Amino acid sequence: MFNAGKRTTSTPLKHAPAEVQLHSTAPYPHRLNFYDVPPLFDVTLEEFESAALARLRILAEIESSFVRNRSYDELKSVTDAQCKKYLTLNANSASTQDLQGERRRDHVGHFVLRLAFCRSEELRRRFVKAEMMLFRVRWDTDDTREREGFLESRDFDWTPVDDKEKEAYKEELMAVPSNIRTQYSEGQFKKDKYHKVRWTRVPDLVEKRRVFLKGGWAYVHERESSSMVFQEFQINLEKALDMTAKALPRLDEDTRLIPILDNLSQGFLAGVPSEWLSSSSSGAEGSGVKAEEIDDLAKKHFPMCMRNLHESLMRDRHLKHMGRLQYGLFLKVLGVSIDEAIAFWRRSFSNITDDKFNKEYRYNIRHSYGLEGRRANYPAKSCQQILMQDQPGSAESHGCPYRHFSEDNLQSALLASYSAHGFTASDLPEIMHTVRAGHYHVACTRVFEITHARSGVKKGEGVGGGESITHPNQYAARSRELEKARQEKAESDRDAMLVDG
Amino acid sequence: MAITENSESPSPELMLAFYRRLYPFKSIMNWLNHEHVPTKLYTHREFAFTLQGDVYLRYNSFNSVEDFKKQVCTLNPTRFEIGPVYTARPRDKRTIRPGGFTPLQRELVFDIDMTDYDSIRTCCSDAGICKRCWAFITAAVKVMDSAIRDQFGYKHLLWVYSGRRGIHLWISDKEAMELTDDQRKAIVSWIAVITGGKDTHKKVNARTGSRPLPPSLQMALDPLAHYFGDLILNDQDCFASQEGWEALLHLVPDRSVSENLEKLWTKDPSRSSTQKWDDLKREVKRIEKGSAQRLVMQAAMEDIILQYTYPRLDAEVSKHRNHLLKAPFCVHPKTGRICVPVDPEHIDEFDPERVPTVDQLLKELDETMVQDSPENEEHHFDWERTSLKPYIEMLDRHAMALMDEVRRTKRGADMTW
Ligand SMILES: [Zn+2]
Fold first, then answer.
1. Which of B365, B353, B364, B357 shows the shortest CA–CA distance to B331?
2. What fold, for A3-152+233-265?
3. Which NCBIfam families match (chain B) (predicted)?
4. pLDDT in tens, A190-218
5. Is A213 on the interface with B (CB under 8 A)?
6. Ligand 1 center from residue A384 Cα (angstroms)
7. ipTM, 2 decimals?
């Protein structure tokens, strides 16, 4: 199936049903996909990874939405916006688009993530929940006629309720609360279609008493059929993941895929790693940050991890290796040039001699800027790397405070660092609740929202469009962008005053 | 007389004699296993023991009835609970790789406890229970039993007295055994109507505005209206006290109605609950028929009937496959009473005070022994000579029906070959 590079990798997903519509003229006649059949074509390692990453970004954002208690409508608009950015999937009516290419990417991404997420029950559960939500968002944004076409293409095994039975239960069916709500007339009832399924297939409808139940059969109004589709999607996916999990050991033979899959499943824990290079379009970086400005920037714009590193450095006049690496690369991407970086570190390490500094630290700083050794351009660490790699020891300051601090220390650090930006003790319960649930990047995103409320950032907005923090430089860049916008607005307000006055 | 708690729990010696001579291990196996020969339904089933001194031992499992009985007699627990069927033998749990040990099946269970009725019953409080307040449980059993049979189509329902002031329901139909946690949650939400704690006045919110109740609740309303008259108005006289009628007025949404009634009842505090309910009905009849105001009040009155009589579930018990629930025929450690099965058809006649206690049973056994042959011949079923007999026979009949069904299904499956 997945052809990684030249060698064909053998995967456990080969058992496809015999008749597959996939091989008709166009492999993907519908925008919606139940993913019954694995991709039976060659996929390059690059496509393998990029399709999966794009999808993972969407799923991780859906998960944050759950954690942040977004309403379905909010979740839908955030997810839809993210899909348009990273994982477009157009309707048939959009004839100018590369429909088949988009759908292939959607198809591949889904199956790669199955491999990455089938490996523990916890991951499977979260994956199913997020995938089901993505399916639902797409379903709700789908063209009605195309959606019907998709429905007709599948056999959902629902029994239509015949007229005789419908008449027998007329009173009960009409009394189902969701029917009453719409001023149900008898004429309308006669026209409406009902299906019956075992109640276990539609637990969500049962839970809300949106069906009539008799003898274990749920009588479902056609209006609710989408609910049955989602349930079906979930059941299919759960079964498929179980089977994949059982067959997975065979895949473990392909050593090139494992690191990719490991990386992907971690993305769920920490959000998708964004590459955050100084070439970023935000405009706030690369503008030449001077060594003496860093302290001021830290207080105004840094996320908790970088605040902590900065404070430790100022207090101890020193940072251990991993701390220097995490902070140094962050500063580089923030726009501190090599000369300014050397000046900054030299001034900060005030307890050591020039000689010691030049011998022990100068090389490493230049190395991290790609000026020594392999001359590689090292990117700054993403939240995922900070969260998952190199757990800090007791004397070390790197890592993610949301994850690595004790609860007490985290609370005092948040208050000490951000009370000047409007963060108060009453914000702590919410943050700590999120932290305890292990959603560290969500906690960080929420702190960002609270501390940027005066720039007009609202709850749920994240770093824009509902996106969560996945990189410390993304945090700082957005923070600086917001400040700049605020200053410009203040300036133009003032100018306007002057002109008018 | 109400059931009071014994000052002492049954002695370990009494318990041991009970397990050795009376506990129906075989019947319990048949019921849990659905077949005569132990299957995974039995061997992969968790049993949890509570030992003397409240030591709690989880993840026990047994290969056979003998195995189980031997262990129970060795440990002599004060009681034990039944959990789910796992993917592996619970006793091997430690040696199984993580993820390889998950609950697969278990009976769908419900727990109704008198505690949840404390705010409305007037005859007893706290741990106390009597024949009069047992009527709340009776009403609950009637409604639940018919709702589950009619709406969910389940047939194998076993009701078990909890030994003090509640009742458990175990449903063993194949589909019920296999329900996921989400499905269990759904069925609980479907059935449960009473929500909110002590501080919530209105605990029934099952309709939109003043529109009719969903069909399933409409169906429950008729029998409950009957219980409302007998139990709430006559027997418990729930609205006699000021606290009682004030609680009622909190549920009357129409200000003018509740103000009129308040005036009337303050002036004449001696009015009985039946009279007060008639007062309310009279007030409502004065509102124009078919008006929105009248509909609101009619809906409110139905909701009041539900609030006072509809089953109050301990929902958490039902929601998870891996919840443990005390096994039938255990001895309640506080009352010494046996957790006996209850026939829902005859629940009206059930009197918790007449349920045998462990020392009564052993006395019965000793007495019949004396009358019997002096050689003290081996009896396989000592229980047949005690008042436990009808209860064990009830469980056996229930298990037999389950086994018949399994046999029929198997035969059906064989024919398709
Ligand atoms: Zn009582």
1. B357
2. Transcription Elongation Factor S-II; Chain A (1.20.930)
3. primase_sml
4. 888 899 999 998 998 999 999 999 999 99
5. yes
6. 61
7. 0.91
